[in-house]
Each structure stands twice: as structure tokens, then as C-alpha cells.
UniProtKB/TrEMBL annotation:
Organism superkingdom: Bacteria
Main localization, broad class: membrane
HAMAP family noted in UniProt: FtsY
Domain SRP54-type proteins GTP-binding: 413-426
Subunit structure: Part of the signal recognition particle protein translocation system, which is composed of SRP and FtsY. SRP is a ribonucleoprotein composed of Ffh and a 4.5S RNA molecule.
EC nos: 3.6.5.4
Residues that bind GTP: 246-253, 328-332, 392-395
GO MF term set: GTP binding; GTPase activity; signal recognition particle binding
Pfam families per record: SRP54, SRP54_N
Protein name, UniProt field: Signal recognition particle receptor FtsY
Catalytic reaction list: GTP + H2O = GDP + phosphate + H(+)
Start and end residues of each stretch annotated as Disordered: 15-58, 111-133
Role summary: Involved in targeting and insertion of nascent membrane proteins into the cytoplasmic membrane. Acts as a receptor for the complex formed by the signal recognition particle (SRP) and the ribosome-nascent chain (RNC). Interaction with SRP-RNC leads to the transfer of the RNC complex to the Sec translocase for insertion into the membrane, the hydrolysis of GTP by both Ffh and FtsY, and the dissociation of the SRP-FtsY complex into the individual components.
Length: 447
């Protein structure tokens, strides 16, 4: 057997013995020098290690300081955000309180205006003058309005039926009611306002279908009451220039004809102006209404300058000492700049003869367009300085709720509502009657 491991050990032993033999012995001086060198090397390494430890300690101190600064900044930011949140909450609370105060102020103003009008009405009656609100208070008036709004009231009433029978007015019920009001074309803003007001006094209380109808009518009337204004065309200067504006098909010409018929019955001397020179049918239609009412109509061939025609009409009325100049204008879309510019030109031309003319600019809105009516009001009031509103075709749509949205969004008087084709179907606007008819209440039911 070959003992490789034993041979290897022997070899190592021989090499170690040889190394010891080769290593010379050092003198005392050399040993002292060697020890001094080793000591110096050890001290150098110790100094380096101390310096490295100091450097690391300095770096850690910087890191600790940075962390402390970051923590301090975070705490300060948290405190600042907490203060800002408190300030925002306080601001929101103040804004909400101001809104509530403003709503109360508006409601009080509406009640005060209603009292003032009633005092004026009573004073006029005492002087032997006709009651300006007699037509509104006539039971036949309410019957026509209710009939005209039957589609809208049916849509709203059907949704209300069974919704609140013995149910609490909780969050779910309020959400259902808000959805119903939105679907009735009152718009999101009005619907939210109405449900919010109901929640203030009736939240989590049992409420019946009839009670909710009465409450809704009250809220709707409060919104619309400040817009109620029975227009008296006998007031103001003579001749009183009344401009009718609106989009195509809104019912301007028919509205003018109906108003002319009423004014003729009351003895007014008026002149109708076929300012829609773009459509021959409009000229013919206004002529027919003029013949029915026995009121002259001033017109020109199709394509003539509408502003020039209006100028001639005012001159004629001034010469003949007429009471009224009722001007039909071409239907125009609110997004057509050139047509809106032409309307502005008509307004400028009237002021060459009377700086205060036109004395009324009545915007005729078609109820069937729903929420689009809001953008129409916005466009026309800035172009033609709209002073009042007529809402037509309420008998042909379930979108009667849009008039509530218009009343909320725009501080413009609502003069008339149209609920049919006949002259007597154009009725003075009554907030109380409209609100009751819209939710399906009877005239005598208390709001």
C-alpha cells in the first residue's frame, strides 16, 4: 500500500524544519525596530478605524437629523392641514348658513311681494278698476291649466302614487323623490333643493302621498312666486314697443296673435309687425291673427330688412298715436351668431326712435324642448336683454317641470303660459295655480 497521506505529512514537517533553519536570528535592536514598526502599524490602523467610526457617526447624525426634520415637517403639515380642514368646515358651515338665510330672505321677499300685489289689487278694486288677477282666480282658469298640464302632472303623479304610503322620509325615500323630480324635467339643481328643504322639516317622519304632493306644491310655489308678474301693457310710454323673440317653432307668432286678441278686447290700439321676413308662412299667419282681432299688420316681402321694417312700424305708431307695437321676429337658434347679431341690430334700431325701446323683450319658450330651454334663456337674455318669458305648448308635453328650473335659474318674470291653440288658452302665469296643477292637486287644496 502506498501511504500518500503519510508521505505528505512528512514533506510538510521537512519544509517547516528547513524554514526554521533558514530564518536568521534578529538582534535586540532589530527586534525593537520590528516591534516599533508593528506598533506604529497597529496605531495607524487604530487611527483609521477611529476616523472611519467618527465619519460613520457623523453620517448617522446627519441621517438622524434629517429624519427628525422630516418628522417635524410632517407633524407641522398634519397640524396645518387639520387647521385648514377646520377652517374649510367653518367656511362651508358659514356658506350653508348664508344660503339658508338667503333662501329665507327670498321666501320672505316673495311673501312680501305677494302681500304688496294683493294690497295693490284691493286698492285697484276699491277705486273701481278691474281686478287684474280675476282671470287667475277664475275656476275655469285653473281647470284649463290643470288640463294643459295633465301630461306633466300624470308623469309626476304616477311616480308619487304609492311611493310614500306609510313610508318614512329617509335617505332612500328622498333619493327616489329626487330621481322622480329630475325625470319630471325640473333639473338636478331644483330637485336637490326641493328634497333638501323637505328633509329639514320632515326627515325620518311618516308621510303620505297627499302630504308629499302638498309639500312639493309649496316648495315649487316658493321657487316660482318671485317670477309671477301679470304684465300690464297699458303701463309705460306710448307707443309701447314689445319684441317677441325665440327659436324656430317656439310659438312666437301664435303667442303674439293671442295677446293681440286679448288687448283688442280691452280696447288697446295696437300694430302688429311681421318682423319674420324670412318665412312667408309667418307673415301670412300673423296677418290671419291680425284680421281675427281687427288689428292692422305691417309687413314687407320675404327677405326684406327686418330692422328697417321695425323702424317704420314705430314711426307709424308715433304718427297715429297707437298704444302698442307688437313685433314678431324670425326664429333663430341660440348658437347662430349671425342671426343673433341681426336681433341685436333690431334692438339698436328701435332705440334711434326711443332710447328706452324696446320696452319689453319677451322670450317665447317651447315646453317640449325640456332642459334646452335653460340654454335658450341664457343666450337670448344677453343678446336681446330679455325682460320676460312666455312658456308655450304645455298641453303637448310631460316636461312642464322645466318651467320650475327656468324660474330657479333666471330672475326673469314669467308673464304667460300656453295650454292650447285658442286665444283663451294663453293664460297669465300664477305660481300657486301652476304648482298645484303640476303635482295634481285641486284648486282648493291647501298648500
Amino acid at each position: 500500500m502506498i501511504l500518500w497521506f503519510g508521505k505528505k505529512n512528512k514533506k510538510v514537517e521537512l519544509e517547516d524544519a528547513g524554514a526554521q533553519m533558514r530564518e536568521p536570528e534578529l538582534s535586540a535592536e532589530e527586534l525593537a525596530a520590528k516591534e516599533a514598526a508593528e506598533k506604529a502599524e497597529a496605531e495607524r490602523k487604530a487611527a483609521e478605524e477611529a476616523a472611519e467610526a467618527e465619519r460613520k457617526a457623523a453620517e448617522q447624525a446627519k441621517i438622524d437629523a434629517a429624519i427628525a426634520e422630516a418628522n417635524k415637517a410632517w407633524e407641522e403639515r398634519q397640524k396645518r392641514e387639520a387647521v385648514e380642514a377646520e377652517d374649510e368646515a367653518a367656511r362651508q358651515k358659514a356658506e350653508n348658513e348664508l344660503k339658508i338665510l338667503e333662501e329665507r330672505r327670498r321666501a320672505e321677499a316673495a311673501r312680501e311681494e305677494a302681500r304688496r300685489k294683493e294690497e295693490e289689487r284691493q286698492a285697484a278694486i276699491a277705486r273701481g278698476e278691474p281686478d287684474p288677477y280675476a282671470e287667475i282666480r277664475d275656476p275655469g282658469f285653473f281647470d284649463k291649466l290643470s288640463g294643459g298640464l295633465s301630461k306633466s302632472s300624470s308623469k309626476l303623479g304616477t311616480g308619487l302614487t304609492g311611493m310614500f304610503g306609510g313610508r318614512k322620509l329617509d335617505d332612500d325615500a328622498l333619493e327616489d323623490l329626487e330621481d322622480l323630480l329630475i325625470m319630471s324635467d325640473m333639473g338636478a339643481k331644483v330637485s336637490a333643493k326641493i328634497t333638501s328643504n323637505l328633509a329639514k322639516t320632515r326627515f325620518d317622519k311618516d308621510i303620505s302621498d297627499d302630504e308629499i304632493r302638498i309639500a312639493l306644491a309649496s316648495e315649487i310655489e316658493a321657487i316660482m312666486k318671485p317670477r309671477e308678474q301679470v304684465v300690464d301693457f297699458a303701463d309705460g310710454p306710448r307707443p309701447r314697443v314689445v319684441l317677441f323673440v325665440g327659436v324656430n317653432g317656439s310659438g312666437k307668432t301664435t303667442t303674439i296673435g293671442k295677446i293681440a286678441s286679448k288687448l283688442k278686447e280691452q280696447g288697446a290700439k295696437a300694430l302688429l309687425v311681421a318682423g319674420d321676413t324670412f318665412r312667408a308662412a309667418a307673415i301670412e299667419q300673423l296677418t290671419v291673427w291680425g284680421e281675427r282681432a281687427g288689428i292692422p299688420v305691417l309687413s314687407k316681402p320675404t327677405g326684406a330688412d327686418a330692422a328697417g321694417l321695425v323702424y317704420e312700424a314705430i314711426e307709424k305708431a308715433q304718427r297715429e298715436d297707437l298704444d302698442l307695437v307688437l313685433v314678431d321676429t324670425a326664429g333663430r337658434l341660440q348658437n347662430k351668431a349671425e342671426l343673433m347679431s341681426e336681433l341685436a341690430k333690431i334692438v339698436r334700431v328701435t332705440r334711434k326712435l326711443d332710447p328706452d325701446a324696446p320696452h319689453d323683450v319677451i322670450l317665447v319658450l317651447d315646453a317640449t324642448v325640456g332642459q334646452n330651454a335653460l340654454s335658450q334663456v341664457e343666450a337670448f337674455r344677453h343678446t336681446a336683454e330679455v325682460s320676460g318669458i312666455v312658456m308655450t305648448k304645455l298641453d303637448g308635453t310631460a316636461k312642464g317641470g322645466v318651467l320650475v328650473a327656468v324660474a330657479e335659474a333666471h330672475a326673469l318674470p314669467i308673464h304667460f303660459v300656453g295650454v292650447g291653440e285658442k286665444a283663451e288658452d294663453l293664460q297669465p302665469f300664477s305660481a300657486e295655480a301652476y304648482a298645484k296643477a303640476l303635482v295634481g292637486l285641486g284648486q282648493e287644496e291647501t298648500v
